[in-house]
Write a structure and sequence with these properties.
Blueprint: H1 9-21, E1 25-26, H2 27-38, H3 44-56, E2 60-65, E3 68-73, H4 77-93, H5 97-105, H6 111-123
Antiparallel strand pairs: 1-3, 2-3
Helix pairs in contact: 1-3, 2-3
């Protein structure tokens, strides 16, 4: 299995727009959206670079349509979040959810939160 690669902040912004559109998208559409939404005047090569990286990371597939490429998500946002969380858990905590939770909540968890976690795990 190939190693999971997290997204940069800008790559995540691009993917969030694509996931929200929920259909194949062309780079010129993304240029228009980022200009309208964030005032970013990216050049075509800039968005092409981000899209190429996302293809390389396995998040998008690309199909040539005439003179333009159409990009389609290979993962849903939920699937991406799951892979990113698992990668972080494996890398930082040797795959142990217990170690992760202990680090995160060692002295901060309330008895009520602990009861909620126990119930959540019992229901799984």
């Amino acid at each position: 299995m190939e190693k999971f690669q997290s997204l940069s902040e800008t790559e995540m912004k691009v993917m969030q727009v694509i996931w929200k559109m929920n259909r194949p998208v062309k780079s010129n559409e993304l240029l228009d959206i980022f200009f309208a939404k964030e005032g970013k005047e990216w050049k075509g090569q800039t968005i092409a670079t981000f899209l190429s990286r996302l293809v390389d990371k396995g998040l998008l597939s690309v199909k040539r349509e005439g003179r333009a490429n159409t990009y389609t998500p290979c993962l849903t946002f939920k699937e991406y979040k799951r892979k990113e969380a698992q990668s972080m858990l494996d890398t930082m905590y040797q795959g142990s959810l217990k170690n992760f939770l202990a680090t995160l909540y060692e002295d901060k968890i309330t008895p009520n939160e602990l009861d909620e976690l126990k119930k959540w795990f019992a229901d799984k």
